[in-house]
Design brief:
By secondary structure, the protein is of the alpha+beta class. The chain contains five helices and 18 strands. The strands form four sheets. Strands 2-5-4-3-1-7-6 form a seven-stranded mixed β-sheet. The chain has a five-stranded mixed β-sheet with strand order 9-10-18-17-14, with no helix packed on it. The radius of gyration is 27 Å and the shape is elongated.
Length: about 350
């Protein structure tokens, strides 16, 4: 089959970190690759070429460093779907935004032109063959581990609420995505963690001493686990409970950051961010407005009244109660006024 292939390589730590994030992010999350126009197949650069919703195979290219005298090896990581492309006139950089899909075991056929493959082109259409085995997250980590630093890998499989999975939301032409979480609610991060180590030429495997630290930029999320996370076996699954605190504002943005950490080791390019929108629920201002109306009527009926007092018409009383309910609920929701 002929498919678009997006390559990232080991020529810079930043490019390795791109592949680390492709392994880490959940299905449907948007990842962003950048290429100078010279590295992109001219047929894919054409303004008339509509690439949106096209299927893409993401590869990691090992052996693309000047320090190593080795033939290049292309290791498939994952399927993705293009959701947006653009070329910057100011920088001559081609930007491609892709929604991540299933992990994949794909081989590039030998009949492809070398001029359409790294190190000549890093975003091109090639003929490939897919293998239906070794196509899960664990297998893809094992395929690249010996060409990466000794590091602990993770994969955020999903975020679950009380009854169902929380879906990703998209904005700005599908260039960005985020999760909507509601204050006062409890959620579960479903994670896979892996520490496969690195195997040397003698066949000895040395595991990493790194851990995965989870941090919330807003301090509005309680992470209920031993933090940072570590695993004593090669691969394991974790369910991490998190709780969103009561917000003082209607809406707040936050970043949930997963950072590999190790003493005397810098993984500065590898932290992975998940964007969160923390929202007030509509149910709480609704109830607050209702109780405000009840309190108003309780005070009104409890105070001494002379027999000469005339009540307004029932319609006016109902409209006044509705207006008080809407006003108090809106003050609670928009301005946190109670």
């Amino acid at each position: 089959m002929e498919i678009i292939c997006a390559f990232s390589s080991d020529s810079r730590t930043l490019y390795q970190a791109d592949i680390y994030r492709v392994l880490a992010l959940p299905k449907g999350h948007v990842t962003h690759f950048r290429y100078k126009k010279m590295w992109v197949d001219n047929n894919l650069l054409s303004p008339k070429k509509n690439l949106k919703n096209k299927k893409v195979a993401i590869f990691y290219t090992h052996g693309n460093t000047s320090e190593e005298d080795t033939s290049e090896k292309h290791i498939s990581i994952r399927w993705a779907k293009i959701c947006h492309t653009e070329t910057s006139e100011e920088t001559d950089v081609f930007h491609v935004y892709m929604k991540l899909d299933e992990f994949a075991n794909i081989a590039i056929d030998s009949g492809n032109s070398v001029e359409k493959q790294p190190p000549t082109k890093y975003f091109s259409k090639l003929t490939c063959t897919e293998t239906l085995s070794d196509n899960n997250w664990q297998a893809r980590v094992l395929a690249i581990k010996d060409h990466f630093p000794k590091i602990t890998y993770f994969h955020l499989k999903s975020i679950h609420g009380k009854c169902k999975e929380v879906n990703l939301k998209y904005e700005n032409s599908d260039k960005f995505c985020f999760y909507n979480l509601t204050h006062g609610n409890r959620y579960t991060l479903k994670l896979a963690l892996g520490n496969p180590g690195v195997t040397d030429l003698a066949g000895n495997t040395t595991q990493s001493n790194s851990k995965i630290e989870i941090h919330d930029s807003s301090d509005e999320i309680t992470i209920n686990c031993i933090n940072p996370l570590e695993t004593s076996i090669q691969f394991d699954d974790y369910d991490i409970p998190i709780s969103v605190k009561t917000l003082q504002v209607m809406k707040q943005a936050s970043l949930l950051r997963f950072s590999p950490t190790e003493k005397d080791q810098d993984f500065g390019e590898f932290p992975t961010n998940i964007e969160l929108n923390l929202n007030l629920t509509l149910w709480r201002p609704f109830i607050f407005g209702l109780f405000s109306v009840m309190a108003f009527w309780a005070l009104l009926l409890a105070r001494p009244m002379s027999s000469s007092v005339e009540w307004a018409s029932p319609l006016i009383l109902v409209l006044s109660s509705i207006m008080l309910w809407l006003a108090s609920g809106s003050l609670f929701f928009w301005f946190n006024k109670k």
